[in-house]
């Protein structure tokens, strides 16, 4: 039996009860994080916690724990579930109150966190994936990791129906990011990706890849690509907590490069793997 934090109670997963008037349930009024666990070790935990609090602050949601207490709660959850490889999903909502759009005067945040076993998608790393293009119909605060995911849900559904792993989003002609990932193009060994502003989520994996690129002497230019530029890149890849560094070999009907994962992508995959291994202290 796995466990779940519901506020400050760690209980069996099937005992959790969430009120029908929780604002996360009714309005998507909350924020979340997905944290990878490798051999029982939380990867980039501090960065995820910092982004979690920043997202909550942007929505004026008060997380009722200090960062240290929250870190311990997540650590204890992984221990309780003896999670080896997988992820922790955690979220905080503005809480339970009679349904009204404006912030309720009286509501205390609802925090939940649970673990999920999830293997690393090794075949995806090795072979690369097909993707589709999809209009970025999301709101203009994509830098907040909010529960408002309908734009991403519809995009991912379109990818799923096309037997693809990801949808690449674009606002008119400008490529922003994936439905649940950051997207990069490589031309002549230089990596291009959308600037970290309100139109994308500044991924934790993106930050690790930036560090890896610097160490490897690979130039990254934070400059938005047009759809046409993306389709004519030598290499394309995407990153997320779950996808790590995954090559993209096809976008709609366009084969990227020679249809195989590229050299720069491979270098970044190897450098990222070294970071993963470093995080495993046992
Ligand atoms: C819209 C969006 N952009 C970028 C990313 C990549 O961010 P990280 O590198 O920090 O993961 C995510 C991750 N979304 C999480 C990752 O796994 N499932 C999700 O919903 C995302 O949802």
Task: Describe the largest sheet.
Answer: 9 strands, mixed
CATH superfamily of the largest domain: D-amino Acid Aminotransferase, subunit A, domain 2
* Ligands (ions, cofactors included): ligand DCS
The name of the CATH architecture of the largest domain is: Alpha-Beta Barrel
Mean pLDDT: 97
Element pattern in H and E: EEHEEHHEEHEHEEEEHEHEEEH
Q: What is the name of the CATH class of the largest domain?
A: Alpha Beta
What would the CATH topology of the largest domain be? D-amino Acid Aminotransferase, Chain A, domain 2
How many structural domains can be distinguished in the coordinates?
2
Q: What general outline do the C-alpha atoms trace?
A: globular
Please give the radius of gyration in angstroms. 19 Å
Protein name: D-alanine aminotransferase
GO biological process, one term: D-amino acid metabolic process
Organism: Candidatus Kurthia intestinigallinarum
EC number: 2.6.1.21
